[in-house]
Amino acid sequence: MVSLDAAALLESRIAVLEASVERCLEFASETSLGFAQAILPAAGALGERLIGLPRPDLHYGGIPALARAGFLIGTDASESDAFLRAVDRVRGRPKGGRDQLHNDDLALLGIANGLKEAAGNGKVRSDLHAWILDIANEVTVPHSWSMRARQLSADLLDRSGRLRADLQQTPDILALDLALRDRWPGAFSTVTPIQVGHRRILMEALLSTPMPADGDMERAAIWLAALRHLVRRISTALVPTYESLAETLKAAQSALRRWVWDSKPNRQGIGPARWLIDDESHVQAFLWAILEPRFGDDLVDEQYLPGFGQKQPRCDFGVIGLKTIVEVKIVRSAADFPKIEEEVAGDLGLYFSDPERFDRMIVFVYDDSDKVHPERYDTLRSALQLRDERVNDVIIVQRPGMIPGRSLRGPWAPTKPS
């Protein structure tokens, strides 16, 4: 348990960091403002102040305004068009923006995020992606505290796995990593989580070391985001919450790293152990093993929900105390993504016909396709969440690399790759 003294210190630190960020709102750069708006929640007094800030001026604000616009870009196609025109103007300068972007990791991240979101809105500009990737790959200060943001900016555009590089264990770098994981979980889906011991060391450092200097908005925002993340982890460890359910499901990707697929028998006369995941029932069994120790009797398996007429939908799991449904889906090819959207959307009214029993859902998707289509992840996530606000999370994990492709698994597998 957290002692009263520790709790008071934690509360005091969070309050001081919030005040520090708020004092910076009047004079911080557009890049810093956009970054703070991206990683800090919209709730509370500080969140309301951040939401109420005027939008950046893309015509006269230069690269800082462009970076902030990239952090804030939404699903409006006209907004994407305006952003891309502004990026074109910067790239058309004599030095192609390199003089300002060369060492500005957070500005790179803002622009990269804008390009990724614009692509999700159907505005794909591979030439601009290549331009940002070229700059992001020019690492001039490899041990900078903001290097993680540079790696993320590139991985958002080409998913090459830069984020899997070893992470230095300094407080600023670890705090930034936690803040980025919360904001861009999809990019970290195959990245090893920070170890419990390192999270504990980080918590101690954030509570005991000198605070970021007054006016250092970026580091104050990172510390604040990291402390909130760690507090959430502590709270969910004590009392299971919706957040702990979502965190457990997101951690499934990491759990698959030690999956068993032996090439040789372990003992004479006994074949090699191979834990094949080949259909939804296998995914359900895996998730049950993860969730049951955590949620116990609160977890129900394939309970019939109140329906209409002759149709009685069955959810895969329900966590009664959290009023949350966990719906499991499997992807075998790119064509399955729109099918999943249609299936979930078609049953939403039936799932939630009794809001006193269940009022929100997590869709858990296991990607078993031989050719991964990560660009479809955010499209599916956005489509389901925009369709119904009760779809709180769409969590997508990829099959572990040691499991062979679908056409290579033996006589029970399809004869042709799907």
What does this structure look like?
Helices cover 51% and strands 7% of the residues. Helix 1 runs antiparallel to helix 12 (217-238), helix 5 (77-91) packs across helix 7 (105-120) and helix 8 packs antiparallel against helix 9 (147-158). The chain folds into two domains: 4-239; 254-408, Trna Endonuclease, Chain: A, domain 1. The longest helix is centred in the middle third of the chain and has 22 residues, at 217-238. The protein has a five-stranded mixed sheet with strand order 1-2-3-4-5, with helices on both faces. It starts with a helix and ends in a 20-residue tail after the last strand. It has helices at 4-24, 30-39, 44-51, 62-72, 77-91, 98-101, 105-120, 126-136, 147-158, 171-183, 196-208, 217-238, 242-250, 252-255, 280-295, 336-351, 375-387; strands at 299-301, 317-319, 324-331, 360-367, 391-398.
